[in-house]
């Protein structure tokens, strides 16, 4: 789900567009293929869901929107985001805290 890169970390996400609110709802898949499952309020039309995901992830990881980039899966439910300037250990801690509350 999370991998360290020289620029920050990559995060594999499984989007569920058209939800009541944007929130982390669980983990999709297992082990190396696991993805963070995020319900997205915005519809998957004209990039609205992608924009909502970028805003959500920027807020969650406390970085600017310009530090979050979709590097794979632009038009798919399965996406990989690059989170620039995010430390792997900090990201794991935040995600562990968020998923334990589910």
Structure description:
This protein has 102 residues and is α+β, with helices and mostly antiparallel strands. It has one domain: YggU-like (Conserved Hypothetical Protein Mth637, Chain: A). The chain is 25% helix and 37% strand. It contains two helices and six strands; from the N terminus they run E-E-E-E-H-E-E-H. The protein has helices at 48-60, 88-100, and strands at residues 2-5, 8-17, 23-28, 35-40, 68-72, 78-84. Strands 1, 2, 3, 4, 5 and 6 form a six-stranded mixed sheet that branches. A hairpin with a 2-residue loop joins strand 1 (2-5) and strand 2. The longest helix has 13 residues, at 48-60. The radius of gyration is 12 Å and the shape is globular. The two termini are 17 Å apart. The relative contact order is 0.25.
Indicate the percent of residues in helices.
25-40%
- Low-pLDDT residue spans: none
* Percent of residues in β-strands: 35-45%
- For the record, give the distance between the C-alpha atoms at the N and C termini, rounded to a whole number: 17 Å
* CATH architecture assignment: 2-Layer Sandwich
Q: How many structural domains?
A: 1
CATH topology: Conserved Hypothetical Protein Mth637, Chain: A
At the fourth level of CATH, the homologous superfamily is YggU-like
Radius of gyration: 12 Å
**What is the β-strand count?**
6
Largest beta-sheet details: 6 strands, mixed
The helix-and-strand class reads: alpha+beta
């Amino acid at each position: 789900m999370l991998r360290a890169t020289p620029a920050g970390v990559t995060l594999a996400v499984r989007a569920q567009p058209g939800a009541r609110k944007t929130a982390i709802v669980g983990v999709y898949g297992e082990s190396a293929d696991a993805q963070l499952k995020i319900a997205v309020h915005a519809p998957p039309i004209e990039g609205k869901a992608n924009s909502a995901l970028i805003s959500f992830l920027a807020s969650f990881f406390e970085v600017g929107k310009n530090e979050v980039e979709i590097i794979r899966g632009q038009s798919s439910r399965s996406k990989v985001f690059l989170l620039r300037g995010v430390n792997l250990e900090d990201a794991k801690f935040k995600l562990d805290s968020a998923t334990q509350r589910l």
